[in-house]
């Protein structure tokens, strides 16, 4: 059990560093997760978890206003790692404090977790690059490549921030679904499977577009 907890913390900590590639992407995804935790904490009247998640949420929002849409400051690798560690800690405490399905925790972090695992196995199979080093084949990177040269996005930072919002649409609907079905195991599993299916379709089309663009 301790080993599983340790692996989960390491995985989520690295996951937030993996998705920290666009303006506000890491923080906005953390905000979605914290709002989900706050919601179920409120429903179950758990003041400790509710207050803790809101406190962390407010601190993230304070940084967010200087990071999005035009980045004046960056959280860096240390900030991304710290974000992942905080959220992993909250999600470990969550089942002990409120009655939710274990799949709820997985559902609200499925985007960064799946992106990390997918990147690991992709690099393992192709044997190109290091797992710890970023590349341009992540979901958010491909979204940015798609929008970077669009005429209505005249400046690079605008395309960057716009791509961040687009990248979070699927995770947003996933967290919304998770909140509506926080204790329904079957619906949560269905939502996760649907997320993975749509994610792979989007990845396929984004890769196809970028290849044709060359």
What would you say this structure looks like, in words?
- The protein has 214 residues and is mostly helical.
- 76% of the residues lie in helices and 0% in strands.
- The chain is built from ten helices and no strands.
- It has helices spanning 2-18, 25-43, 47-64, 76-97, 102-108, 110-126, 139-147, 156-167, 169-180, 185-213.
- Helix 2 runs parallel beside helix 9 and helix 9 packs antiparallel against helix 10 (185-213).
- The longest helix has 29 residues, at 185-213.
- The protein is globular.
- The model has no long low-confidence stretch (mean pLDDT 86).
Give the key terms.
single chain; 214 residues; mainly alpha; globular
Extract low-pLDDT stretches: none
Main β sheet profile: none
**Strand-and-helix sequence, N→C?**
HHHHHHHHHH
Rg (CA only): 17 Å
Q: Assembly state here?
A: single chain
Strand content: under 5%
- Give the CA-based shape: globular
Helix content: over 70%
Quick gist of this model?
It contains 10 helices and no strands. It is mainly alpha-helical and 214 residues long.
Write the layout of secondary structure elements.
Layout: H1 2-18, H2 25-43, H3 47-64, H4 76-97, H5 102-108, H6 110-126, H7 139-147, H8 156-167, H9 169-180, H10 185-213
Helix pairs in contact: 1-4, 1-6, 2-3, 2-4, 2-9, 5-10, 7-8, 7-10, 9-10
């Amino acid at each position: 059990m301790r080993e599983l907890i340790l692996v989960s913390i390491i995985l989520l900590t690295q996951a937030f560093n993996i998705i920290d590639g666009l303006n506000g992407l890491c923080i906005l995804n953390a905000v979605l997760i914290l709002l989900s935790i706050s919601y179920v904490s409120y429903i179950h009247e758990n003041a400790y978890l509710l207050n803790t998640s809101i406190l962390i949420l407010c601190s993230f929002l304070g940084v967010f206003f200087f990071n999005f849409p035009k980045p004046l400051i960056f959280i860096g690798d240390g900030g991304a790692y710290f974000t992942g560690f905080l959220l992993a800690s909250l999600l470990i405490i969550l089942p002990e404090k409120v009655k939710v399905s274990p799949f709820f925790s997985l559902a609200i972090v499925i985007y960064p977790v799946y992106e990390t695992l997918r990147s690991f196995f992709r690099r393992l199979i192709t044997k190109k690059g290091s797992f710890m080093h970023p590349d341009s084949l992540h979901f958010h990177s491909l979204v940015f490549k798609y929008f970077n040269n669009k005429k209505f996005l005249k400046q690079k930072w605008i395309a960057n921030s716009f791509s961040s919002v687009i990248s979070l649409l699927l995770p947003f609907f996933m967290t919304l679904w998770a909140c509506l079905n926080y204790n329904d195991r079957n619906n949560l599993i269905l939502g996760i499977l649907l997320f993975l299916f749509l994610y792979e379709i989007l990845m396929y089309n984004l890769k196809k577009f970028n290849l044709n663009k060359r």
